Amino acid sequence: MSAPRDDLTPDATTDAPTDATGVRRADAPGPLVVEVDGGVAWVRLSRPDAMNALDEALKDALVAALESLAADESVRCVVLTGSGRAFCVGQDLKEHVRSLADESATLATTVTRHYNRIVVALATMNKPVVAALNGVAAGAGLSFALACDVRVAADTAGLNTSFAGIALSCDSGASWSLPRLVGTARAKDLLMFPRTVGAQEALELGLVNRVVPAAELDATVRDLATTLAAGPTLAYGSIRRAVAFSATAPLADALANEAELMAYTGHSADHRAAVDAFLAKDKPVYTGR
Predict the structure, then answer these.
(1) Domain of 89?
(2) Together in a domain, 33 and 124
(3) Among the four 176, 182, 249, 265, which has the fewest Cβ within 10 Å?
């Protein structure tokens, strides 16, 4: 959901028209921009006047785009970012207020229909995912960032769990990801006493991996994503799965899962290419197979 503070609450009154899917390229109107270049897919939330608050059209477009990119083998790395001064402030509260008048609509509806699917796609696609935090990330927007592998924040960015500020529990995986990043006690503190955490503090807490000057964010993330896309994406995907599995598994089960994934990647063309390149003192070319 959205941030509780007035300065983080969007004024979402108008949007550019969307196409049939809600997904657009840079030269077409819509709430989401998806651009693929060199195996890197940039997924840019594009409701800047509403601080990229999540309305129905944007949520539908984001689900469709992420699930499509997850299945696209030509895409080797995904970057999630925002436009304007925010990454994403979570649920569009104006839309939510209207939905309260509909007895058939509940928060659980959009959580299961949209947020859960978005987080599952971000966290489980078999390729690396980077969050480029260009500004405020709050509520579900913060949860989406936490589902990514790497979070690079502009030095002007701020993070806010926000849920308790509007008398809600938490969603989009916040209860899963926060304790694993910062520990249970600190996660409860951030959730029960929501506040905007600045970029530098977020780095110290382990909420983000890197902080860079705002003017350098896109270039930094582009270099990082290009490096990941050129790397052994099959191994990256297996590492994602191994880490997620081990978070809730006994040691013996985690070891068994690691053995399976080592066998899987050990028989890959990428592994053979890496070994051959090492022996030849050359640079390997990875295909994700």
Answers:
(1) 6-229
(2) yes
(3) 249
